[in-house]
Write a structure and sequence with these properties.
This protein has 338 residues and is α/β, with parallel strands linked by helices. The protein has a domain of 209 residues: Rossmann fold (3-Layer(aba) Sandwich). The chain is 40% helix and 17% strand. It has a seven-stranded parallel beta sheet with strand order 3-2-1-4-5-6-11, with helices on both faces. A two-stranded parallel sheet has the order 7-10. The model has no long low-confidence stretch (mean pLDDT 97). The structure holds UDP-4-deoxy-4-formamido-beta-L-arabinopyranose. UDP-4-deoxy-4-formamido-beta-L-arabinopyranose binds next to α7 and β8.
């Protein structure tokens, strides 16, 4: 019996693969390397087992997906594979709807066809859009602000309806802002091109790949004028996926349940930069510039439901995230390179 991890060579997928192996599960990864590297698979195998099964493939190709279910004894799925750049989604919405919704539908159809019931879906706090009340709970109003966010919102609905009609057991994990890396420094975030997200930008400035951080807005209604987010260590996030699969064998069996994966602590952009400077050991250049359109002023999670339903709480703080992310970035200045 094995867990199929789609997007398994990606930032969160690769860390989940390690956590699943450490929890004693047999893991099968599938990835098309559109936003990941074959070298990540080597790093995963070095941290788990050399014969960990990896299939290069596109989950939107039904024949390829069926072949994986037929060749391997899959009995649960974690679905990460998706395009995930918010800004790119606004310039290429149809590609995002086709790819992300097509992948979700294909995975659900393949599961039903092959009699697999248990699914953990990679959703996002972007489904909350601009929250009126923080911290956000799973009952907070939802409504996305970008095509990317709508693909997560719509995928959740697709899976709710599929779970109802076909008796699937589903957990929809709404991630906040992933950061950090495996403590060994051989696995980490390696965005294609110039990164959109704050922490990779901070670390690429620190390692000399970028000149300075542009801080998007210093005039928000927060304690230091910069936006607040709930940064969560990617290893905590990975552990949350193991806990979600376990819950599908327990109290979440027969349900389709949304769960926030956040720390419950908000950190501002300037606080992230300050924590990174401690990890790096020197100042990191930044300039406060205009706001980025579509940015939420502040959002962070109420993590109570994850504790109640998954028995999971984040264990690592912002200092650990910055320390582990810097450990990866300083050892791999250009990410996964031949
Ligand atoms: C964080 C803060 C920016 C870059 C992300 C993902 C989204 C979802 C949630 C998974 C904001 C500021 C950033 C920079 C900056 N994750 N910033 N300068 O927008 O919260 O969303 O996490 O689904 O997919 O995109 O994250 O890291 O882009 O921004 O000042 O160069 O950092 O304004 O306040 P965001 P982010």
């Amino acid at each position: 019996m094995a867990v199929l991890v789609t997007g398994g060579a990606g930032y969160i997928g690769s860390h989940a693969a390690v956590a699943l192996h450490e929890a004693g599960r047999e893991v099968v990864l599938i990835d098309n390397f559109i936003n990941s590297s074959p070298l990540a698979v080597d790093a995963i195998r070095a941290l788990t087992t050399p014969d960990l099964v990896f299939v290069e493939g596109d989950v939107c190709d039904r024949a390829q997906l069926d072949a994986v279910f037929e060749m391997h004894d899959i009995d649960e799925v974690i679905h990460f594979a998706a395009h995930k750049a918010v800004s790119q989604s606004t310039s290429a919405p149809l590609e995002y709807y086709r790819n992300n919704l097509g992948a979700t539908i294909g995975v659900a159809e393949a599961m039903i066809e092959h009699g697999v019931r248990k699914l953990v879906f990679s959703s996002s706090c972007t489904v909350y859009g601009q929250p009126d009340v923080i911290p956000v709970t799973e009952h907070s109003p939802t409504g996305a602000e970008s095509p990317y966010g709508w693909t997560k919102y719509m995928s959740e609905q697709i899976l709710r309806d599929a779970a109802e009609a076909a008796d699937l057991d589903v957990v929809l994990l709404r991630y906040f802002n992933p950061a950090g890396a495996h403590e060994g420094g051989t696995l980490g975030e390696d965005p294609n091109g110039v990164p959109n997200n704050l922490v990779p930008v901070v670390m690429q400035v620190a390692v000399g790949r970028l000149e300075k951080i542009e801080v998007f807005g210093g005039d928000y209604g927060t304690h230091d004028g910069t936006c607040i987010r709930d940064y969560i260590h990617v290893v905590d996030l990975a552990d949350g996926h193991v806990a979600a699969l376990d819950a599908l064998d327990g109290q979440l069996r027969g349900t389709c349940t949304a769960v926030n994966l956040g720390t419950g602590t908000g950190s501002s952009v300037l606080e992230v930069i300050a924590a990174a400077e401690v990890a790096v050991g020197e100042p990191i250049a930044y300039e406060i510039v205009d706001r980025r359109p579509g940015d939420v002023e502040q959002i962070y999670a109420d993590p109570a439901r994850a504790a109640a339903l998954l028995g999971w709480r984040s264990q690592r703080d912002l200092a650990a995230m910055m320390g582990d992310h810097w450990n990866w970035q300083s050892r791999n200045p250009h990410g996964f390179t031949e």
